[in-house]
From TrEMBL:
PROSITE patterns linked: EAL, GGDEF
Segments forming domain EAL: 1-238
Domain GGDEF: 423-560
Xref: SMART domains: EAL (SM00052), GGDEF (SM00267)
Organism field: Saccharothrix violaceirubra
Signal sequence coordinates: none
Pfam families: EAL, GGDEF
Gene Ontology terms, MF aspect: cyclic-guanylate-specific phosphodiesterase activity
Full protein name: Diguanylate cyclase (GGDEF)-like protein
Cited InterPro entries: CBS_dom_sf, Cyclic-di-GMP_PDE-like, EAL_dom, EAL_sf, GGDEF_dom, Nucleotide_cyclase, Rev_trsase/Diguanyl_cyclase
């Protein structure tokens, strides 16, 4: 079996941050001279050397990466059966790391299928041992194969890698789309990052971005190469997919996003050295890696002690007598105390930290730390400022120019959020009766004024509760999402208001769908169920209000009378 490993070479494929366009990690992919790595592992299994061969491949991946001076986090692959095997089989992995001068904290172990052949208890113990020794854990092949859902929740890996078959189906398969939404929700609760693997088309990339997935890899972004592309960017690809909302029309299921970006959405890998490092060691890294903006000096536990800014450091070291004065001495003499921010913080929190920083340091990277204050990466202020600006532009573009209310996408996100959390809520569809006649009678300017006045009244009503959300979805149509206790007082207040256009009094129709937990599955379904309710409301005389429930034909008429029959 060792002779077969001599013919194995490695290709390296980068993982990209879709917010910044930069490389955040590199995955080592084994490339045997004949056949595939799966063929090689099957041969090893038949010979009784599967775990040894699997670990040997991981060791070779680490050594090959070191040959190219890769400083980014390295993803290596191990089978679940190997991780569940005897702990002593992992000894060569630690030896390989010592040989190349890397630590377990630099490595993400991607645990791969099949999971069903690995005893569950031993697998969890094996993962726990790796994590205690400093390795980060990824679970590969999620969404296909035999990945147990309870394992995702129990292990709480740092990385969940979506299987390429799931990613390929995202643009057109509503069920797969909903599956990834659920995994996103799980990741938010457990701190696991989703990686979209095998992104091959712009439609797939657009779907991935629409879901809010931050990390991706695939041939569309960068193909595996023998020499790692650590300085690659995908800004050109992202600019071509310039509308992440423009997913193919066959896509169903509402969009769900957080209220705003977190600092981890803009995370770059940190270049770290021990706090005892010399200036010469820092200079070697900055010279070899021109894209590195600074170095974080950490204690043995991985907590940041100092940050070395590239520009200020090079100015000191390369100036007159700079090398002679500083090269052999501790680098922290030319460093600053780190600007630290927690991984759970928002991008706006980061800007608040920057606003209170010394003027000379407003552009310094911020060090992101976990709950144990260990360094997990750095964030560049320019990335966050650009990201927030783009978010505000997107939000402004989505607002109605008449009412300044958000459109249907915002309501879709809110409905989806409440469905995901199993809440009881109501969705209302409000419009003006015979609005075309209003425009034809008193003019479209008066019609615009009427729509603005209704928008203001809805905004005022929603202001009474932070959980009410209103939207203007076009023309004279408005949508409302509210809790069960809020919908009646809100609707009553809106409908009790008198609305006029140039002295012509108008009436409104409101159709409301009350959704119990589990009664609806998507915003699209809510929209479909509201349509006949709205038709019912429009059939009533005067200002009307009807209420229905999914799965029931019964309609409650809360306001409005029947039209008189014409003889």
């Amino acid at each position: 079996m060792p002779a077969l490993l001599d013919d194995v070479r490695f290709a390296f494929q980068p993982l990209f941050n879709l917010h910044t366009g930069g490389v955040v990690a590199i995955e080592a992919l084994a490339r045997p001279h004949d056949g595939s790595v799966q063929d090689l592992l099957r041969m090893a299994f038949r010979a009784g050397y599967l775990a040894n061969t699997d670990v040997a491949l991981a060791c070779r991946a680490i050594r090959h990466a070191a040959d190219h001076d890769v400083l980014l986090p390295l993803h290596v692959n191990l089978l679940a059966m190997t991780v569940a095997d005897k702990p002593e089989l992992m000894a060569p992995l630690y030896a390989a790391l010592r040989e190349v001068g890397r630590t377990p904290a630099d490595i993400v172990v991607e645990v791969g299928t099949p999971y069903s052949r690995a005893p569950r208890g031993r697998l969890e113990k094996g993962i726990s041992r790796l994590r205690e020794d400093g390795f980060k854990i990824g679970l590969d092949g999620v969404g296909e194969g035999d990945t147990p859902l309870s394992l995702l929740a129990g292990v709480q890996p740092e990385v969940l890698k979506l299987d390429r078959e799931v990613v390929a189906a995202l643009p057109e398969d509503a069920a797969r789309y909903a599956l990834v939404q659920a995994l996103q929700h799980l990741g938010e609760q457990t701190g696991s990052l989703l990686v979209a693997e095998g992104v091959e088309t712009e439609a797939q990339l657009a779907a991935v971005r629409r879901l809010g997935i931050r990390l991706a890899q695939g041939n569309l972004l960068a193909e595996p190469q023998r020499r790692p592309r650590v300085g690659a960017t995908i800004e050109a690809v992202l600019s071509e997919v310039n509308d992440p909302e423009a997913v193919t029309k066959t896509m169903t299921g509402p969009l769900r996003r957080k209220a705003g970006p977190k600092v981890t959405d803009f995370l770059h890998p940190a270049t770290t050295l021990p706090e005892t490092a010399t200036s010469e060691e820092v200079l070697e890294i900055l010279t070899a890696q021109p894209t590195v903006s600074g170095v974080v000096l950490v204690c043995p536990a991985g907590r940041p002690r100092w940050t070395v800014d590239r520009n200020r450091f090079l100015l000191s070291v390369t100036g007159p007598f700079g090398h002679a004065l500083h090269a052999k001495r501790e680098a922290h003499r030319l460093a600053d105390k780190p600007k630290i921010i927690g991984a759970d913080s928002s991008a706006l929190d980061l800007l608040d930290v920057v606003a209170h920083a010394h003027r000379e340091r407003t552009n310094d990277d911020l060090v992101v730390v976990d709950r144990a204050d260990r360094c997990v990466g750095v964030v560049r202020v320019a990335d966050v400022v650009r990201g927030i600006a783009e978010l505000k532009v997107e939000q402004a573009a989505a607002l109605s120019p008449l009412t300044r209310l958000p459109g249907s996408d915002a309501i879709a996100r809110e409905v989806d959020r409440r469905i995901m959390h199993g809440e009881i809520f109501a969705v209302g569809w409000l419009d003006v009766d015979s609005f075309k006649r209003v425009n034809d009678t008193v003019g479209f300017a008066a019609g615009d004024d009427l729509i603005r006045s209704i928008g203001r009244r809805l905004t005022e009503g929603a202001g009474a509760s932070s959980s009410i959300q209103v939207g203007h979805v076009g023309g004279d149509d408005f949508l409302v999402v509210a809790g069960l206790d809020e919908v009646v007082p809100f609707g009553t207040g809106v409908l009790d208001t008198v609305y006029e256009a140039e002295g012509v009094r108008v009436t409104l129709s409101l159709a409301t769908l009350v959704c119990a937990a589990g009664s609806v599955g998507s915003y699209r379904e809510v929209s479909r169920l509201l349509a006949p309710l709205k038709e019912h409301a429009k059939s009533l005389r005067g200002t009307s209000w009807v209420l229905g429930r999914p799965g029931s034909d019964h309609v409650d008429v809360l306001r409005g009378g029947p039209h008189l029959a014409v003889s």
